[in-house]
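Deliverable D2.4 — example input (structure tokens):
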């Protein structure tokens, strides 16, 4: 009997780790539909949000599932929530500011449950010259030189791969960097 209880507790713990972590507001019982709608409009106005982020935020309020659907429908109808705009803003910010590559951006957007077709559409807006210059900039930051040992070069290539850049673009940037 105790082995069965241990097994059930272990399964519950395993599935609990897979659930998104969020805190339920202590005052959430006092919120009505209009208050939640106002808070979600402010939440979406502050920054672009994905549908998934909004659903997680809505889960912190104790309102019915029907009201949650109504809030999301209203936000979409009033253009507070737009997946295309979110994907484009996310890609643009990560390329310009964080200097991430396509693979890492794609993984982050998939984690936010953005549709693959929207991700591909957002990638079309990336300026290839800026994207390639980002790789060169990161090579300069890592003080890349042709006289480095193969081990040091491989460490830098692994770093660029971890930033999400494509292997062929990395080697093309290294060849360009050696010419300069």
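Example output (designed residues):
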């Amino acid at each position: 009997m105790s082995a069965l209880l241990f097994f059930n507790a272990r399964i519950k713990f395993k599935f609990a780790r897979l659930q998104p972590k969020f805190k339920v507001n202590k005052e959430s019982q006092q919120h009505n539909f209009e208050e939640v709608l106002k808070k979600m409009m402010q939440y979406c106005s502050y920054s672009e949000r994905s549908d998934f982020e909004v659903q997680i935020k809505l889960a912190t309020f104790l309102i019915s599932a029907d009201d949650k659907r109504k809030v999301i429908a209203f936000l979409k109808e009033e253009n507070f929530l737009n997946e295309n705009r979110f994907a484009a803003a996310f890609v643009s910010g990560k390329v310009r500011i964080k200097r991430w590559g396509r693979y890492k951006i794609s993984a982050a957007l998939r984690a936010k449950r953005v549709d693959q077709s929207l991700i591909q559409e957002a990638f079309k807006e990336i300026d290839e010259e800026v994207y390639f210059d980002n790789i060169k900039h990161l090579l300069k930051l890592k003080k890349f030189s042709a006289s480095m040992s193969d081990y040091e070069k491989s460490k830098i290539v692994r770093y660029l791969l971890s930033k999400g850049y494509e292997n062929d673009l990395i080697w093309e940037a290294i060849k360009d960097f050696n010419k300069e």
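The chain has two domains: 2-81, 127-180.
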